[in-house]
Structures are given as structure tokens and as C-alpha cells.
Amino acid sequence: MGGLKKMNKMKRLILIFLIVLTSCAAPKKCCSQDIKKLFKFSTFYAAASGGTSLSDVDVFSVKNGLETSTVQTPFDYNLAFGIRKIARFGYENRANTFYDGTETSWSDAATIGKVSGLEFLFETDIKRQEGVKYIDQHHFIRYVGSWYILKGEYLQDGFADIEYFETSQRYRYKIGKLSLNIGAVQRMSEPYGYDPLAEWLLETGDIHYTYLALQEGYNVDVYNSIYTDPDGNVVATNPEIWEEVVIPNILSDYTEKKRNELDRKMQQSLVIGLDFYHYKKNFWMHTWANLMPWHYDDGSEYSYNNYKSNAWRYMDGKQWLDYSGGLIFGYKLNKHLGTFVEGKYNKYWNRRWYDFKFGMNYVIF
Fold first, then answer.
1. Are residues 249 and 289 in the same domain?
2. CA-to-CA distance for 90 and 19, rounded, in angstroms?
3. How far is CA 5 from CA 191, 254, 329, 331, in A?
4. Distance separating alpha carbons of residues 181 and 210, to the nearest angstrom
């Protein structure tokens, strides 16, 4: 319940910021536009897609005679809802008649779009993949001026286990097709520097997992090898199942519970970035990068500045490097042969998430 209240509070803050940025951050020319002009060229979409997941698996047991059970994985699905107003780059082709939300638009992660002015994206995906349910969200609104950039963004990636709200204000300097920027970024997220299991660690690196389980309401009958959960249900009848199956779930639930009890943290950082875009029909390159080399230490107990397990630390041991970037490259060597590389990479706190693809095309005739 506490985690839900914090999430609702974060969403209210996001909504307030987006309204303020839309109405006040842009020049007066943009503020005077009516709703029709604001949403001109934007696309609203709602779509559902699905497919077969993992095939059924037969599981055999001979403990009490031959027993067979079948593990079934429900079908995969994706429910997508969104609205976007983002100008397409020259290398982006609208192949489908309808926009269904399953398209991969890696250029959305770039700091600067193809055109100046106001652009936005609000998308939510409710998914089930291989029996696992999760939610992905990506919302952002940005205004790109001739010498400044304003942006607010909310990202939730279920697979990568990352969620944060980010705002940034940057000074922009153009050198031909290259755009450099520097400024400040504010990120609100759960305290990723907090490790709830640290207090249970022994000097050997092991964990008092039995004591932790007892504290969480589990009961252990060592003599009869009976292990029950807080509701009295038997969850294991031998030490192997207890240690290899039940304990990992207990540690996972405990970690999530303790993190949800804490307030979201605000991280103030310096950001330096660049964007480069070049397009011709036979050759194009679009790349962007953002580096955060310095982060304000507010001295709080759960600040990531105190996190000890980061290999990229430098200076006084309380600074680290966060970064993100992307590359979209295409080259048609001749009318038959072409090659491409596309991808993006993100590293925030102790979380990494990325996508990439590369290959070649050869037209025979």
C-alpha cells in the first residue's frame, strides 16, 4: 500500500510538471496555440496483440510412484495505448498503414528531435511474456529551441527493473550538424543505492536467511523438515526445496517490501551531451550521447553517493558515471548491397538496459 501511494504521488508530480512545461516553458508563440494546433500531426493509438508463448512442458515425478503434471504458460499479449507527436527522421519509414505501438523507434531516446519546437510521447504497454506480467511506460515532453532544451520524462521498464522521472534544462550550442549541450538534470527514483540485505550479511558474505525468514513470519520445523509460510501453508518438506526455491522468493519479497517503505530520492546531476544527424539516401548517421559525471551529495543515508558496489567510482569515491547513448547507421554500398547498425545503451545507477540490431541487405535483382 505504501509503494502504491508513493507511485500515485510521483504520477501527480509528473502530471503537474508536464502541464507547466507545456503551458509555460515554451515561447509565447507556443502558449497562444489552441488545442487543435497543439495536437496537429499527432497520432493517438490503442492496440492489442498476442501470440503463442512457451509450449507446454511435461514434468515427471517418481517420489510416490510415477506422476505426471503439465506446466502450461498462458499466451503472450501486449496492450498498447499512446499518443505521439514526433517528426520522423529521414531514415524512418512508416511501413504500416496503422500505428499500433509495437514499432521500435529508438530515435525517441535522442535529446533533440528532427525539428525544433514542442514534441511529446505518452505510451503505456501492459504485457505478458512467457507467463510474466509487467508494465512498460515511456512518457516525455520536450521543447527544443535554437539555444536551449527543456525536457521532462518518465520511464518504467519492467524487464530492466528501472523506473524514474527525469527533468533537464540544457544550454545548446550548434556546430553545423553537431549539437552540443550542457546543463542540469533532476531524477526521482527509488533509492537504488539501498541494499536491504546488507544488514543480514556475515563477514563471509553469507546471509542469515533463516533468521530473516523467521522474522517475516515463516516457521521452520527442522526435525520433521516442515517449512510453513506466515499463513501456515506448507511451502517445503526438505531443506533443498527450502534453500533453493523458497528462500530466493523470501529474499526477493523482503527486498521489494523494504524498498517500497522508503521515499523516492531526488538526484541532482550535471549533464553533458551531444547529438549528430546526417541523412542522405545512400548514407545516414544519427547518434546521441549523455554523460553525467557529477552528482550532488545531499548527505542522506540512502543516497547513491554512499553505494559501495560501483566500479566506475572516482575522485573522492562518492562520484560515479551515468550515461546513455544511441547510434543509427545505414550505408548503401551500391544499388544491391547495404548494411545497417542500430542500438541504444543506458546505464543509470546500478541498472543497465539496451537494445541493438545489425545486419546487411542484398537485393538480387
1. no
2. 30
3. 16, 19, 43, 50
4. 52
C-alpha cell at 91: 531514415
Based on the domain organization, do 69 and 181 belong to the same domain?
Answer: yes
User: End-to-end CA distance of the chain, in Å?
Assistant: 62
Nearest to 189 by CA among 169, 167, 165: 165
Q: Are strands 162-175 and 226-228 parallel, antiparallel or unpaired?
A: unpaired
Domain that holds residue 217: 198-260
Residues 267-319 have pLDDT tens digits of: 999 999 999 999 999 999 999 999 999 999 988 888 888 876 665 677 677 89
What letter would DSSP give residue 106? G
Residue 228, beta-bridge partner list? 219, 234
Question: pLDDT value at position 4?
Answer: 46
Residues 281 and 306 in one domain: yes
Q: What is the pTM of this model?
A: 0.78
Contact 236, 222 (CB under 8 A): no
220/113 same-domain check: no
55-77 mean pLDDT: 76
**How many domains does the chain divide into?**
2
Interval 22-49: pLDDT, tens = 544 545 554 555 677 777 778 888 989 8
What's the CA gap between 264 and 318, in Å, rounded?
Answer: 20
What's the pLDDT score for residue 340?
95
Q: Burial letters for 309-335: b for 16+ Cβ neighbours within 10 Å, e otherwise?
A: ebeeeeeeeebbebbbbbbbbbebeee
The radius of gyration of the chain's CA atoms, rounded to the nearest angstrom, is 25
Of 296, 315, 309, the residue nearest 194 (C-alpha): 309
Local structure of 28: helix, strand or coil: helix
To 5 degrees, how large is the angle CA 74–CA 76–CA 81?
135
